[in-house]
Amino acid sequence: MDLKEIKAIIDLMKKSSVTEFELEQKEFKIKLKRGGNHPGDGDDSSFYSARPVMAVPASLPPPPGPSAALPAPPVSNDAEIKSPMIGTFYRTPAPDAAPYVEVGVEVGPDTVVCIIEAMKVMNEIKAETRGIITAIVAENSKPVEFGQPLFRIRPL
Amino acid sequence: MNPDTQILRALRDAGEAGTSGAILARQLGVSRAAVWNRIEELRKAGYDIEASPHHGYILRATPDALHGDDLMARLPVNRIIGRDVIVFSETTSTNDIVEKLARDGVAEGSVVFAESQTRGRGRLGRTWCSPSGCGLWFSVLLRPNLRPTAATQLTVISAVAVARAIERETGLHPEIKWPNDILFGHRKAAGILLELNAELDRIRYAILGIGIDVNLDPDSFPPDVRNVATSLSAEAGRNLNRPSLATAVLRELDHLYARLHAGDFHEIGDEWMRRCTTLGRRVSIRIGDRSIAGRAEALDEEGALLVRTEHGTLERIIGGDVTLEKNG
Q: Given an 8 Å threshold on Cβ–Cβ distance, is A119 in contact with B287?
């Protein structure tokens, strides 16, 4: 398995709801995991591999050219809205309220898209850019890490 | 400094000795008639100011009502927290007002009180009951030089400030329930909520909202909080002077905020840990639809609660609803 194939799997995972992928072959094992970890579970790498040890960055840069071996996935220009702190991700201002944003919604720089809470600090996260929400990456009321992507947004 | 703040500060400084209209007029740079006018206005607002032929004006008693000018007169001259104090008789939520001030570029340290709030709020859309003239409901605008990841330090210093002020003013010993509720036994007397506006690497502003149940009759609490709420008057067995407590909180906050920026967070954090009675207790925590139960074992250096679950694993808790088990 080469980098291109791994990249293709990552792209497929990004587009689908698959959050974990594990493959074991002779002399080769890879495990891919998307989304946040629960803090304190002792494993803060988003994925790992063994035999041979391979370190693959979570988001690979787009391939330099069209791949001959695999159909090139469309290069995504979407930006990410990331968490500025460790905390709990809330999509709604209150448990019974409607979410701040949904996929397909157009947002402005000051549109609140979610709340991150840590120790009674409620951080209203703004979109910071004008665009359309294309994906909600983090899971409601689950822990998120610093810098973890929360949403993908297609700039307008 | 505005004239009423100056007059009240001068009267407090003079105490029983009093100060003359002529001296006040000179200090303020106005006529004695103008001073007399201000004194009349203050009397109408409930300030008992005696005019003695030998001593001039003496401040005998102050009302329990909150007045921005009076609160500022009680604070040190050099301060950040309380640099400006505004009191509304009623508003939706003092956090709403401070948010507007923040957007207008107002400098940090401005404080907004309301005698009553129509939509006082807690975490995640919960309401905070804030009847008129009974409590301290206020918000402070902060522009801390901290990274968003360190914003939880504000939670720690504000809890310590409120606990210290209550202790100083009442002689009571409030407990801190992780992370920043102020409790007596199992009942909450004060709550603190921080709302942050941040970029990835800096805090634009933070709004510190504090609600303290001061002179409330527990029988007047809504039924859903009657068993979990208390007030300082109920705990102390007497009514307390609200302006005096308000000033004490702002002084402590100003002091601790300055120490935080001077790099003294660890000492404040140690005091917070000593006051935090959640440790060693059995707790259950609800985070969204997830529940964790176990024993609160320790606080880590960032203030997160470490809970040993029934399965023996250690969970690091940074949010959610923490319930103290009664027989823990």
A: no
Answer CATH for B68-275 from 3.65.10.10, 3.30.930.10, 3.90.220.20, 1.10.220.10: 3.30.930.10
Q: A88: which chain B residues are within 8 Å (Cβ-Cβ)?
A: 287-288, 318-320
Same domain? For A44 and A90 the reply is: no
Query: What is d(CA B242, CA B253) in angstroms, rounded to the nearest whole number?
Result: 16
- Alpha carbon distance B111, B74 (integer Å): 14
For CA atoms B196, B199, B203, B204, give the dihedral sign: negative
The chain B residue lying nearest A90, using CA atoms, is: B288
Query: Chain A window 64-103: which residues touch B at a Cβ cutoff of 8 Å?
Result: 82, 84-88, 90, 93-97
The four Cα atoms A64, A70, A72, A73 give a dihedral, to 10 degrees, of -120
Q: Tokens standing for B217?
A: 């009759």
Question: Is A73 within the bounds of a domain?
Answer: no
Written as six digits, the tokens of B179 are 């992370």
pLDDT at B111: 98
Q: B3-61 has which fold?
A: Arc Repressor Mutant, subunit A (1.10.10)
- Residue A20 included in any domain: yes
pLDDT at B19 over 50: yes
Summarize pLDDT for B141-171 with one digit per residue, the tens: 999 999 998 999 999 999 999 999 999 999 9
pLDDT category at B69 given cuts 50, 70, 90 is very high
Residue A34 has what pLDDT? 67
Number of helices (H) and strands (E) in chain A: give both, helices first.
1, 11
pLDDT in tens, B275-290: 999 988 999 998 877 8
Q: Which two tokens stand for residue B168?
A: 């100083």
Predicted confidence band at A17 (pLDDT cuts at 50, 70, 90)? low
Q: Of A126, A116, A140, whose CA–CA distance to B152 is shortest?
A: A116
Q: Domain B282-324 is of which CATH architecture? A: Roll (2.30)
List the structure tokens of B87.
């009191």
Q: In the prediction, which pLDDT does B18 show?
A: 93
The domain limits of chain B are 3-61, 68-275, 282-324
- Taking contacts as CB-CB distances below 8 angstroms, the residues of chain A near B319 are 87-88, 117-120
What is the spatial distance between Cα B304 and Cα A116, in angstroms, rounded to a whole number? 15
Beta-strand pair A121-126/B187-198: parallel
Cα distances (angstroms) measured from residue B103 to each of B11, B82, B108, B147, B207 = 36, 18, 12, 19, 11
Considering only CA atoms, give the Rg of chain A: 17
Nearest Cα residue to B240 out of B291, B307, B314, B166: B166
